[in-house]
Amino acid sequence: MQDNAGFYAPLQYQQLWLWLGLVLLLLVACWYGWILWPVRKAAPKTPAGAHGTSYDLETLRASCLSAIDTLEREADAGRLPGRDAHQRLSLLVREFAGAATGLPATSMTLEELRRNGLDQFAVGIALIYPNEFAPVAMQSVRDSANTARQVVRAWN
Question: pLDDT digit of tens for each residue in the chain (156 aa)?
């Protein structure tokens, strides 16, 4: 016996699902394009020491020397432990050099400082280094402060 109900073709998908799928694919493609597209422009390269005038350097030098004096007074008064004072001295001098040159001097090793032409600066930092990391300071905060002052004053 034959079935009189006849043959039913498979149901067709609605057009809405096709368009939703295409829109979803387009959104995913746009998202990948947005993620992978370089968004930052490269910073213009400036040579070391070309940032400011001598007045700016003198102002920077004066503020750094003032900060060194303040730090030395705090350490002498006992408000700042010797090791912390040595670490802050190194940071002050490195921030001064970084501001004067535009280099990231606060995170550079001595070898990197030398490679960037900051030999005298590296020598001064090397004199402060042992006191920053030694369990017992090899020289007083006053001596390290004098070294830091010499480095800042000798800066060209």
Answer: 555 667 777 777 788 888 999 999 999 999 998 888 876 665 555 544 444 445 588 899 999 999 999 999 998 998 988 888 888 998 999 999 899 888 998 889 989 989 998 888 888 888 888 887 877 778 888 998 999 999 999 887
For residue 117, give Cα distances in angstroms to 46, 99, 113, 125, 131. Answer: 15, 15, 7, 14, 24
Residue whose structure tokens are 């007045």: 55
pTM of the model: 0.62
Q: Give the helix ranges, DSSP H, for the chain.
A: 15-36, 54-76, 82-101, 110-115, 119-133, 141-154
Are 83 and 131 in contact by the 8 Å Cβ rule? The answer is yes
